[in-house]
Structures are given as structure tokens and as C-alpha cells.
Amino acid sequence: MPDMERVLSRNFRALAKFVAFRLFLIVTLMVGPVACIRRGVVPESTLAALPVVAGLFVLIHTVLRLRFATRLFSCKRVLRHYPLTYYSRVAKKEERGKVYGVVFALRVSIRGQHGAPLMRGVNAAGSTRWPAGFDEGGWVAGDLPYGGVVISPTTDAMLFVKPDEWGKLESQRGELGLERAELARQARMDKGQWPEPRFS
């Protein structure tokens, strides 16, 4: 079973590296050309200002991505309320690129069991790649009809997940009982309060 402090630490470090790289790129693109023009290294022209425009687009995209970086804190809250359960099958079905990252369609189940709900998930640390290690299954914290966190058993990568069709599972959630509904409320997973990731 993975150590929660280690998992959270690795994911927060991965997010910090993403932010640091983006900031370096933004500063290089936006400040570099201006400094070169002022020092007379390159002549003042529209062409010389193009990197500044590119830097502005990178800045906007980074801000949009970071808006959803708060999902790491949502994952931390879920991990505080739910124990980890091992599922032997984590299967990616599809992926789609969005402004804030890549959304994966996946099923989390025990091998041999059927009827697992289709989930959508995003990498909690902001990566756009499907995490390695899910060939061996995954650790789940949460309640899948509500959503939760899926952790790779070998890399500690986390997927922030919720049901693909929230409304279709309403009757199933109603059968889970008040205790599970209250736990989901405490973890803020009730009422579809996680508006992202959108898959459509």
C-alpha cells in the first residue's frame, strides 16, 4: 500500500516543476526579446516582438491549467476521508485534449467483475500523459459512484476521477445509504461538485 505523505509530496513536486518550467519559458519569451532590443542586440521590429506574443499565449494557457491544479487539494481531502482499496484493473478507454489538460475515460474494477461505471479522470499533478504503472491495477480512495482518486502502484501518480455520467448513477448512489452519502459530502464529492474534468 502506498504511503500517502510520499504520494502527495511527489505529486506536489511534479506540479511545482511544471509551474517552474512554464514560468521560465514565459520570462524567456516575454522579457528576452525586450532586453535584446533595448541593448541593441537585435533591431526593433515586429518580427523581434513575436516571441512576446508567444509568451503571452503560454501565460494564458498556464493560468487556465493552474485553475484546475486545485484538484490536488481535492485529492488530498479525499485521501483524508477514505481508506485505500486495491483494484486489479485500471483500463484507459479514450483520451481527449482540453485547454486544462488531457481527460481520460477509464474503468476501474476487479478483474472478472463487470458493470464498473465509466469514469473520467485527469492527472492530478497536471501531466498530459497516461500515468505508467496502471497495468498492475491501482489503489483507489473514494466511492466510485461519487468519484475519488486512483493511484498508480508503481509511480505514485494520481488520477482525479468522477463518473462520466453523474446523473445516470443517481439511483445507485441513493442505494448506498446515508453513511456513505455523508462521507462523500465531507469529502465534497456529493452533488457533482467537481465540475472538471469535462469529457465532452
What does this structure look like?
The chain is an alpha+beta fold and 200 residues long. It has 2 domains: 4-67; 71-192, no CATH class. Helix content is 41%, strand content 23%. A 7-stranded antiparallel beta sheet has the order 1-5-6-7-4-3-2, with helices on one face. The radius of gyration is 20 Å and the shape is elongated. It starts with a helix and ends in a 14-residue tail after the last helix.
Quick overview:
41% of the residues lie in helices and 23% in strands.
Q: Sum up the overall morphology in one term.
A: elongated
Strand content: 15-25%
Helix-strand pattern, N to C?
Answer: HHHEEEEEEEHH
Helix content: 40-55%
Low-confidence stretches: none
Distance between the termini: 34 Å
Radius of gyration: 20 Å
- Count every beta strand, where a strand is a DSSP E run of 2 or more residues: 7
Largest sheet: 7 strands, antiparallel
- The strand order across the widest sheet is 1-5-6-7-4-3-2
Quick check: average pLDDT? 83
Domain count:
2
Structural class: alpha+beta
Number of helical elements: 5
